[in-house]
């Protein structure tokens, strides 16, 4: 009864600010979990939890040496985390910055967006049939100016013919990545950072690793066409999915790009529904 009375008093004393505080902290922990999921940091978190669990146990059992080692491990571990997981920390801060200060894509209307995606899809389909390797990066909220500076600036309209021509074998720009911003091909022949993820299929070549690398450090959508098999792949948020058809690729591009384009025109309730669909689709 005393315990029940304690909980009832506690509940009665909860204010709106307490609820807000709990909600904010819960959201922060959820975002940290999402960012760490299926990365090296996830395994690190499990190790930290195990150490924190063992410290009081070793103290209770008077295991002095073990307790001393575990405490020192936690102390030194904080600095080690910053050094070892610098890429993950950087990606988390960039993700936070994108969420807080994101700018909208500059597109005049939905018809323009439809035409843009159609031109990209037609080029990708033709390149796939000819088994011509391609790497197309569609910029989203994260700016890719540092990547663009490594290639040849074009500032040309996105057309099927131009995209196909860029990736013709033995031409100066075919080996690098082509960057699309809004409705323009801003640069071609760009160099992308390679992914350091050791779980990537060993059969995948440099083009796929580069696609994963840029998707890990930004929110860009990266389309890859294999020059060996013509298989179409897509890299988003550090994850690679393969064997896309034109229809399947069209569906996911519209889901992501169109959602962001229309986001400012929707009511709050409509935004919540659309983002729920997107999250479920990613899972």
From TrEMBL:
Ranges annotated as spanning the membrane: 6-32, 44-62
Keyword Nucleotide-binding: yes
Alphabetical GO biological process terms: cAMP biosynthetic process
Residue ranges that the Swiss-Prot or TrEMBL entry lists as coiled coil: none
Catalytic activity line of the entry: 2 ATP = 3',3'-c-di-AMP + 2 diphosphate
Enzyme class: transferase
InterPro entries (UniProt xref): C-di-AMP_synthase, CdaA, CdaA_N, DisA, DNA_integrity_DisA_N_sf, DNA_integrity_scan_DisA_N
EC assignment: 2.7.7.85
Record has Transferase as a keyword: yes
GO molecular function, one term: adenylate cyclase activity
UniProt cross-references to SUPFAM superfamilies, sorted A to Z: YojJ-like
Pfam families per UniProt: CdaA_N, DAC
Domain of life of the native organism: Bacteria
Keywords for this protein: ATP-binding, Cell membrane, Membrane, Nucleotide-binding, Nucleotidyltransferase, Transferase, Transmembrane, Transmembrane helix
DAC domain mapped to chain residues: 86-246
Subunit structure, as described in the record: Probably a homodimer.
Family: Belongs to the adenylate cyclase family. DacA/CdaA subfamily.
Function: Catalyzes the condensation of 2 ATP molecules into cyclic di-AMP (c-di-AMP), a second messenger used to regulate differing processes in different bacteria.
The protein's name: Diadenylate cyclase
Source organism of the structure: Clostridium cellulovorans (strain ATCC 35296 / DSM 3052 / OCM 3 / 743B)
Taxonomic lineage of the native organism: Bacteria, Bacillati, Bacillota, Clostridia, Eubacteriales
């Amino acid at each position: 009864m005393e315990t029940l009375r304690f909980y009832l008093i506690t509940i009665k004393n909860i204010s709106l600010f307490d609820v807000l505080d709990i909600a904010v902290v819960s959201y922060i922990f959820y975002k940290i979990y999402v960012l760490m999921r299926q990365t090296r940091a996830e395994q690190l978190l499990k190790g930290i939890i195990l150490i924190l669990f063992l410290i009081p146990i070793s103290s209770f059992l008077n295991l002095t040496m073990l307790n001393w080692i575990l405490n020192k491990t936690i102390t030194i571990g904080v600095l080690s985390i910053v050094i070892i997981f610098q890429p993950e920390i950087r990606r988390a801060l960039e993700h936070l910055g994108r969420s807080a200060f994101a700018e909208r894509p500059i597109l005049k209307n939905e018809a323009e967006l439809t035409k843009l995606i159609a031109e990209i899809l037609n080029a990708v389909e033709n390149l796939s049939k000819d088994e011509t390797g391609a790497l197309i990066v569609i910029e989203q909220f994260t700016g890719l100016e540092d990547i663009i500076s490594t290639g040849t600036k074009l500032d040309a309209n996105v057309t099927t013919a131009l995209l196909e021509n860029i990736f013709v074998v033995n031409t100066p720009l075919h080996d690098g990545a082509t960057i699309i911003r809004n409705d323009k091909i801003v640069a071609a022949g760009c160099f992308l950072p390679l992914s350091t993820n050791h779980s990537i299929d060993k059969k995948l070549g440099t083009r796929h690793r580069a696609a994963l690398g840029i998707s890990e450090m930004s929110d860009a959508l990266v389309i890859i066409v294999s020059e060996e098999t013509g298989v179409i792949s897509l890299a988003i948020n550090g994850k690679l999915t393969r064997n896309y058809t034109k229809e399947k690729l069209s569906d996911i591009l519209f889901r992501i790009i169109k959602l962001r384009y229309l986001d400012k025109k929707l009511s709050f309730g409509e935004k919540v529904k659309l983002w729920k669909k997107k999250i479920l689709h990613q899972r």
